[in-house]
Amino acid sequence: MKKLALYKQIQEDIMRKIKSGQLRPTDRIPSEQELMDEFKVSKITVKNALTLLADEGLIIRVQGKGTFVSANLVYNNDAPPVRSVSSLPLVGYIIPTMRTRVIQKLVDYTEQFLQEAGLSMVLSITRESSSIESNAIRTLTELGVQGLIVFPTEDEKYNESLLRLSLDKFPCVFIDRYLRNIETYTITSDNYGGAYKAVTHLLSKGHQRIALISPENSNSAIEDRTLGFEKAYTDQGISIDKSLWCHIPLNILRGEQALDYVSGFLQEHSGITAAFTLTEETARLTSAAISSLNNHTTIELLSFDNPHLASVAYVQQDEQEMARTAVKLLREQMDHIYSPKNAVIPVQLIIPSS
Q: Which parts of the sequence belong to the HTH gntR-type domain (predicted)?
């Protein structure tokens, strides 16, 4: 019989202890160092095991406090009373992914400002799934968090769990994306103004056939950036050719066909002289697609968010101020002050020197 991989052995050992009741909801599980010593394995092996358990919703990792069994697991009522961790000053932070630099910076700054405020952060990643988002909200509230900061999923819908937070006036701040026509606390970058500045810059350089390249979804950030794009054209009195808009389906954007999809679009629409991408991810993808063209076409690229590509201009968000404001507005609600507002954080257009 084939021996289990070491990370799998750790994962199954913890799962067995949870199922048997040896580890109860909200119980602390052994630290990474303790698991390394017990199983005689490396830190990365332990991290892999814990990441898999967290993905399955079995455990929650609390910044600065340790790792705990999720609070919403069913357990044997004959077992001893459950020790609660809800007395800890916890704040839940729900994000869709850790893949973008913007979100990485937001998490880093938010943890810093929460720590300065005497609070600990519990991080949950939804992987762009509204069902995981709902489960995360339930698990974190049952764990006893005193507030939530939520970065909604990319394909933003009126998730019932998000609506319930607003209706119940539970301390909560939506960051980057938000639910329109819902009275709540939101923080966004100036998506409309940033896109307007970017496209106005391209138009001032003589570009008129500008491609718009973005994920195919309807979240508020993408919508506002698209409106800013349109307004720049309107103010210049130039008609927009929307056949030059490339909305990449999410299943393609996340798969192996993304590059071919964008390359094909650029080849089919001749005469494009510039491209404005609405995300860091689509900027890097478009840059690769432009490089793959065989006709030596020159297309100027400009991105919303820094794609970290040489000589590419971009709209810079202020992640530090977004995080600072998020913690400030959350503390306001935790102090029983409820006055919903939408904070719009200024952005900058960064033009690399030639």
A: 4-72
